[in-house]
Amino acid sequence: NKRIVFVITPTYKRLTQKVDLLTLCHSLSLSRAQVKWIVVEDSKNPTPLVSNFLSLCPVSSVHLSVRTPHKKPKLWWFQKIFVKRSSWRHRGIDQRNMALQWLRDKYSTQNCHEGIVYFADDDNRYHYRLFDTISKTVKISVWPVGFVGGILYEGPVCYNNTVTKWKSWAVNYDPERSFPIDMAGFAINLCQLLEKPLANFNNSWSRGQLETEFLHQFVTSKEELECRGSDKEVHVWHVKTAKPSISKSHQLQHFLET
Ligand code: UDP
């Protein structure tokens, strides 16, 4: 099998960054699929911490960086105090787009056939078998993701590789959301991406609409998707590593050392 799974991971500086990346490195290393890990840091330049880490991870990788401009909207403190609205923003948009650009620069519609693209955030947990599933993608494949949106798992319900319905907290509440799945719940063939050179992630999309809006650039109905996995076989979980309780001075030391 000559197929390559391109795994796109945005990452940013925090105490648990290396621990999260290590967990993902281990899952990728155990997989039998051929993986190319595209790690995109949310920073002006690639940092020594991540480049040293990647040099010791046995997975073939590419290291890029782009800083998210204006992480907080203008007057965010005003909104928080007086309007009581949180300063919410999508995360990892510019980083994912940079990785897509890297792929578009490197591949063409002539040599894209063996490539599959997957967006793996750095803090989720991935079963190594997930990447074998991803490598079988023909056009766009989908599967359930554990612990999303207040339910045990969210995603497609499959019958014979076809999506029969969606299982999601939002299906009743937001019927317009045609593909109620998490970022970790789909993979797309590289040729699809190259055939739509303008398809990207966009900061102006509303909250919770990132995956649906992205997929809508390639497909319009659930019948076009390849349904993988089942609810009894969740292979990826949307979790967050708890921030360790470390004194302020030691946190500073950690950042100075790495
Ligand atoms: N991320 C980033 N810059 C930030 C915050 C997050 O690059 O300022 C990355 C993060 O490392 C992760 C992805 O963007 O790979 C999604 O972030 P997060 O998991 O916090 O978002 P959630 O899925 O929980 O909404």
Structure summary:
By secondary structure, the chain is of the alpha/beta class.
Task: List strands and helices in order, with pairings.
Elements: E1 4-11, H1 17-30, E2 34-41, H2 48-56, E3 60-65, H3 76-83, H4 93-106, E4 115-119, E5 125-126, H5 130-135, E6 140-142, E7 145-148, E8 151-159, E9 162-167, H6 170-173, E10 186-189, H7 190-195, H8 210-216, E11 226-227, E12 236-237, H9 248-257
Parallel strand pairs: 1-2, 1-4, 2-3, 6-11
Antiparallel strand pairs: 4-10, 5-12, 6-10, 7-8, 8-9
Bound molecules: uridine-5'-diphosphate.
Site (Interaction with galactose moiety of substrate glycoprotein): 154
Main location: Golgi
EC number: 2.4.1.135
Q: Could you explain the architecture of this structure?
A:
It is globular and about 55 Å long. It has 9 helices and 12 strands. The termini are far apart. The mean pLDDT is 90. The strands form 3 sheets. The protein has a 7-stranded mixed sheet with strand order 3-2-1-4-10-6-11, sandwiched between helices. With 258 residues, the chain is of the alpha/beta class. Bound molecules: uridine-5'-diphosphate (UDP). Residues 9-12, 42, 68, 71, 91-92, 95, 121-123 line the site of uridine-5'-diphosphate (UDP).
